TrEMBL record:
Domain HTH tetR-type: start-end pairs: 11-71
Protein name from the UniProt record: TetR/AcrR family transcriptional regulator
InterPro entries: Homeodomain-like_sf, HTH-type_TetR-like_transc_reg, HTH_TetR, Rv0078-like_C
Organism: Cellvibrio polysaccharolyticus
DNA-binding among keywords: yes
DNA-binding region(s) from the entry: 34-53
This protein's UniProt keywords: DNA-binding
Annotated transmembrane regions: none
GO molecular function, a single term: DNA-binding transcription factor activity
Length: 198
């Protein structure tokens, strides 16, 4: 039998806690989950949770960070698969809004995390804005988008899709209707960026 290193054991413990907490937060919500319930489900102690995450709030922040990284990979794949850079940018912005109706993202990231942790983490926000700025600069350089300050424009578009996502996620009974309304509004706004309307 191969003996695991300390680093491997630490990573296994963290992974178990993250997976169990993510499932509990998605199905029951942050407020309705008990640290004892998900540490027991993971076969660990409350002490392990405190050691690795500092408490339930720290565990929520780690779950949100994990989801943010997954979202970023999904959005990059959408941009990369598009027929052209403009369509990639447009589809990426639309996908950001569409994520708001996925149950775990809606519940964990857009509802509970905002209520418990405040606005989106500065790290995730900064990365998303930088990525969007780079895409916009490319579109400006090739003449697709009217040339303005790419960072300012990225900040503004990020604000639109982020607040749109929160608005969509607010009421489960309305989220399909709100999603379509937000997508229509987003398309209208994005068309205004084009140097030559399509």
């Amino acid at each position: 039998m191969t003996r695991r290193t300390r680093a491997e054991m630490i990573e296994t413990t963290r992974s178990k806690l993250l997976a169990t907490a993510r499932q509990a937060f998605a199905t029951q919500g942050y407020a309705n989950t008990s640290m004892d319930d998900f540490t027991a489900a993971a076969g660990l102690t409350r002490g392990a949770l405190y050691h690795h995450f500092g408490g339930k709030e720290g565990l929520l922040a780690a779950v949100v960070d994990q989801i943010d990284r997954e979202i970023d990979l999904r959005l990059q794949a959408i941009s990369a698969a598009a027929n052209n850079p403009w369509e990639g940018f447009r589809q990426r912005c639309r996908a950001y809004l569409e994520l708001a109706i996925e149950p775990d993202i809606r519940r964990i990231v857009l509802q509970d995390a905002r209520a418990v942790l405040g606005d989106i983490s500065p790290t995730a926000q900064g990365y998303c804005i930088a990525s969007m700025q780079e895409l916009l600069q490319q579109l400006m350089d090739d003449g697709t988008v009217v040339a303005v300050d790419a960072q300012a424009l990225a900040q503004m578009i990020y604000g639109v899709v982020t607040e749109g996502s929160f608005w969509i996620a607010e009421h489960e009974a309305l989220h399909e209707t709100r999603l379509q309304q937000a997508l229509d509004g987003l398309d209208l706004l994005l068309r205004g960026l084009l140097a030559q309307p399509r």
